[in-house]
């Protein structure tokens, strides 16, 4: 899930602008109130010149509305720096002074933490630290362990100290990233063009969809999807899909190359928009897909399912990190932002976009009961479900694909990963593209 | 204009008091060239010999990166990725070069010799550039609704009963890649060829006619040789652009067609800078060789 991307924000902010204009009186009233509150509650912040936090990340969480709301609440300004997942990692490694707050995926940590460019986050300063969902801290959903193949957050979430370059085996006071959003990905399908139930990853390479399938062309994620397919086809069972040996990589790529030579793929896709366009135009009827992309196809009035599969989901998670050089008021501001982010408003906002928030209790308190029932409990919507921007995402009576939070996150099979043999994998992936 | 430039170029003998001024005049461009081209290039060359791991570049002197670029290329049964990639890149370069040359030459010929009024000439020439007022990517993407499975072309063909099922190879294929390239870069052929043609002394063509040459003979023996500079300059533009491209091939080829540029891009996005640098050095040397070969065919400085 890289450039999860600009389009989302573009579309979102466009619609947000529309919504804003429509409800100006109420908004400006809120703004006024928030201003008074902010002035009263955070006098220390206002006494000095305003803090500006440079927020480096992909566009997933970089929502204009979130930044504006935070500034209204606290007076701290968020300056979004939106790049792709790969570029977030690249900048964290090569230019750690170019941001004050990083929003990156857990799998990137294997590359970033050994450089010492990240500061351990002191959980004592995070108000809701102990309420962070158990999926991150212990790898459990509703008390049951979920799949931990790949870079599961629980493996990399704790550091040995504030200035540590290694991950801690057991929980400590210092976290590498404070989780923001996460989700579980699966195949997207066009039910109107396939016309039969799909229940396995193996269908991606089913010759029935020759010339009408697509796969993600971000090697480290695409290979995980491919591995799900290889296992589903019964070709091989990986000890860890997220950390393959050279032989396993060869096998996986060989399977992909054979399918490609047989004309299975219509296209490969790399960013959010490409996947939406491929699906919406009917060039492709089955492909690995991200849940908001499915939503985007649907808002065009085209049937598209985020299809739950019997082998489970490939999960991803992102979180906030602090650069090692951050100090003083900016550091305080960054902590304040993280605390604010976990406090519910942002969580509810993200939940309504189809992601999941890191602290569920606080998000729940900011959502309507019927919204919570639809998004998190897998119940049929009792009234129309709207996105944060006011678009209707689902009509009354609809049920969310994949069901409840527990059903979906409980069905995780593996996590996005960086393998030990990453260099070899990228080289082999290029071979697949060139085949 | 050419007549005035040529003599000054040949007068290389330094005149007293002029040499210092010439150095000063050359300094700004030289500095820009050194800072933004030579130094980065030297860095790329240096890094291509470095070692690397997941998150850091390790200064070293190793041929590892170059060896890994040609990994498996000794295998005769199945071509290695690098050769395959270069082969496909060369294929596109050649096809695009050939098509843009034919179209570019024809359009220039029409503009230069058939359009009599210079006002109309300018107007038509500006008309040629209009598509270039929008960005590359937009011009490329606009082909998609036209060529897609449910696109305009297929709808028309199916509607007219010419085909039963939509034609699949219109989009995400070699065809669509070449089409987009031709659409994007024919202009780079037209401009220099038109420029050369405009400088051909019309009396030469009259002389050819008077000597009884057929239209074809005039074209082949007079116009083509005299437009040679334009053709070579246009070819250099088109070939170098296509050799390094990864956006057009990516978008129009459905990300399924390899190009050298694409491989370099993937490697940089995974922090494999030394590998990418090695690939870039190889690509650069190949392109330089092509340009060198092309410039053997014409002395550009003399002809300009």
TrEMBL record, chain A:
Keyword Signal: yes
Keywords: Signal
Pfam families: SBP_bac_8
This protein's record includes keyword Signal: yes
Database matches in InterPro entries: SBP
Protein name per Swiss-Prot or TrEMBL: ABC transporter substrate-binding protein
Organism field: Rhodoferax lithotrophicus
From TrEMBL, chain B:
Subcellular location field: Cell membrane
A Pfam short name: BPD_transp_1
Transmembrane annotation, as ranges: 28-50, 94-115, 122-142, 169-194, 231-253, 273-294
Primary subcellular site in the record, as a coarse category: membrane
Topology in the lipid bilayer: Multi-pass membrane protein
Alphabetized UniProt keyword annotations: Cell membrane, Membrane, Transmembrane, Transmembrane helix, Transport
CDD domains assigned: TM_PBP2
ABC transmembrane type-1 domain residues: 86-294
Protein family according to the UniProt entry: Belongs to the binding-protein-dependent transport system permease family. CysTW subfamily.
Protein name, UniProt field: Spermidine/putrescine transport system permease protein PotB
Organism: Rhodoferax lithotrophicus
């Amino acid at each position: 899930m890289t450039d999860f991307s600009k389009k989302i924000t573009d579309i979102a902010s466009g619609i947000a602008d529309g919504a804003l204009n429509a409800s100006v009186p109420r908004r400006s009233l809120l703004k006024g109130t928030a201003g008074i509150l902010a002035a009263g509650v955070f006098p220390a912040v206002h006494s000095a010149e305003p803090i500006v936090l440079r927020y480096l990340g992909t566009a997933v969480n970089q929502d204009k509305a979130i930044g504006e709301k935070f500034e209204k609440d606290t007076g701290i300004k968020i300056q979004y720096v939106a790049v792709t997942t790969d570029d977030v990692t690249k900048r964290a490694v090569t230019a750690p002074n170019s941001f004050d707050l990083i929003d990156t995926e857990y799998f990137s940590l294997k590359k970033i933490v050994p450089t010492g460019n990240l500061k351990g986050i002191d959980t004592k300063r995070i108000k809701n630290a102990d309420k962070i969902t158990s999926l991150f801290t212990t790898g459990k959903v509703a008390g049951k362990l979920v799949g931990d193949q790949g870079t599961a957050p629980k493996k990399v979430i704790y550091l040995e100290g504030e200035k540590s370059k290694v991950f801690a085996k057991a929980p400590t006071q210092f976290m590498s990233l404070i989780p923001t959003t996460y989700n579980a990905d699966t195949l997207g399908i066009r039910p109107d063009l396939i016309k039969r139930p799909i229940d396995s990853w193996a269908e991606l390479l089913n010759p029935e969809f020759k010339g009408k399938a697509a796969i993600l062309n971000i090697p480290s994620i695409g290979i995980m999807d491919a591995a799900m397919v290889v296992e589903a086809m019964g070709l091989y069972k990986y000890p860890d899909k997220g950390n393959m040996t050279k032989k396993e990589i060869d096998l996986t790529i060989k399977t992909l190359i054979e399918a490609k030579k047989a004309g299975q793929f219509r296209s490969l896709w790399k960013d959010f928009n490409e996947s939406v366009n491929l699906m919406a135009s009917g060039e492709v009827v089955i492909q690995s897909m991200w849940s908001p992309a499915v939503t985007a196809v649907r808002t065009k009035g085209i049937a598209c399912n985020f299809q739950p599969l019997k082998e489970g989901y490939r999960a991803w998670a992102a979180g906030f990190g602090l650069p090692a050089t951050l100090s003083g008021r900016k550091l305080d501001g960054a902590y304040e932002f993280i605390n604010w982010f976990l406090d519910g408003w942002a969580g509810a906002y993200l939940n309504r976009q189809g992601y999941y928030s890191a602290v569920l209790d606080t998000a729940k308190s900011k959502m309507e009961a019927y919204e919570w029932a639809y998004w998190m409990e897998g119940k049929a919507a009792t009234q129309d479900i709207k996105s944060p921007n006011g678009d209707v995402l689902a009509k009354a009576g609809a049920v969310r694909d994949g069901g409840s939070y527990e059903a979906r996150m409980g069905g995780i099979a593996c996590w996005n990963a960086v393998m030990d043999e990453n260099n070899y994998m990228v080289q082999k992936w290029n071979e697949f593209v060139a085949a | 204009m050419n007549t005035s430039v040529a003599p000054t170029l040949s007068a290389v003998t330094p005149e007293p008091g002029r040499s210092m001024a010439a150095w000063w005049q050359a300094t700004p461009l030289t500095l820009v060239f050194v800072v933004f081209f030579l130094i980065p290039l030297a860095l790329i060359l240096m890094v291509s010999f470095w070692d690397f791991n997941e998150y850091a570049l390790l200064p070293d002197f190793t041929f590892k990166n170059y060896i890994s670029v040609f990994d498996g290329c000794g295998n005769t049964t199945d071509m290695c990725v690098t050769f395959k990639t270069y082969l496909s890149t060369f294929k596109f370069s050649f096809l695009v070069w050939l098509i843009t040359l034919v179209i570019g030459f024809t359009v220039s010929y029409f503009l230069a010799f058939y359009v009599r009024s210079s006002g109309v000439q300018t107007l038509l020439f500006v008309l040629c550039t209009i598509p270039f007022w929008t960005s590359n990517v937009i011009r490329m993407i606009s082909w998609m609704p036209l060529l897609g499975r449910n696109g305009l072309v297929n709808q028309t063909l199916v509607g007219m009963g010419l085909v039963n099922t939509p034609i699949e190879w219109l989009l995400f294929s070699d065809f669509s890649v070449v089409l987009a390239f031709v659409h994007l870069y024919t202009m780079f052929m037209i401009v220099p060829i038109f420029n050369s043609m405009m400088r051909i002394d019309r009396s030469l063509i009259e002389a050819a006619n008077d000597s009884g040459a057929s239209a074809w003979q005039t074209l082949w023996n007079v116009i083509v040789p005299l437009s040679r500079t334009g053709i070579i300059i246009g070819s250099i533009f088109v070939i170098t652009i296509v050799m390094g491209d990864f956006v057009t091939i990516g978008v129009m080829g459905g990300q399924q067609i390899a190009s050298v540029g694409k491989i370099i891009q993937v490697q940089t996005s995974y922090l494999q800078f030394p590998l990418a640098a090695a690939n870039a050095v190889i690509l650069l040397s190949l392109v330089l060789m092509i340009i060198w070969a092309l410039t053997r065919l014409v002395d550009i400085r003399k002809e300009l």
